[in-house]
Amino acid sequence: MKEYVERSYRLLHRQQDLVFFQIAIKETDLDIGIAHDKLTAGLVDGVKQEIIKIRSQLEQYITADHTFYHTLEPYTPGPGAPEIARIMARAAATAGIGPMSAVAGAIAQHMGLYLARRCREVIVENGGDIYMRSERKRKIGVFAGSSPFTNRLALEIESHRMPLGICTSSGTVGHSLSLGHADAVVIMAPSAALADAVATAAANQVQNEDDLQTAVEFAMSINSVTGALAIKNDQLAAAGAIKLAPA
């Protein structure tokens, strides 16, 4: 899909009071927003080195534990696993699926926490999965492929709900594995790794519009998930702390 390839969906989480910069290393492609006065060459270089470090830890572990990478079932990493792998595995097991379902959210969260030690306002987006920390209300647009809701709906998020993970899975947009056909399932949770895994698991359940409510109810049954939104064509279902607003 052209809109996905060009990543124009990134305009849906951009905030006018923040400056955004991009760093792409292999499959990790981050769009990062911070306050203008925090953007320095040193900070950007630090972010780049941290991504390289966390990716290297994960890549080395995957090389030694192929099951971790390939399984679609809950999996307990071995004793030598780095913390990023353990976070992914715990989040995915909670959702009932394999660890790699949480990789984008886990990396977004890791980098968000890294930046939060230096910046009060932080948005880190990684392939449609977002970690956000802010002291003000934010609006995040919803991208749902060819659904008429794309570019028309946004999530309004109050500051007291942050830091927050806002992660999206789709069976019709992007390259990530999905066993369903949802245009978008958006999950909110304090952990972006968990939000990512639950979004994947919930989206797997959507074959048509009749499955939207079931997917949302499944997501909300998982402890610490605070909101769920599922979209297929011109239908949607939502539950929890989802506050919809015009994009």
TrEMBL record:
InterPro entries linked to this entry: ApbE-like_sf, UPF0280
NCBIfam families: PRK04334.1-3 (NF003323)
Protein name: Uncharacterized protein
Species this chain originates from: Desulfoscipio gibsoniae DSM 7213
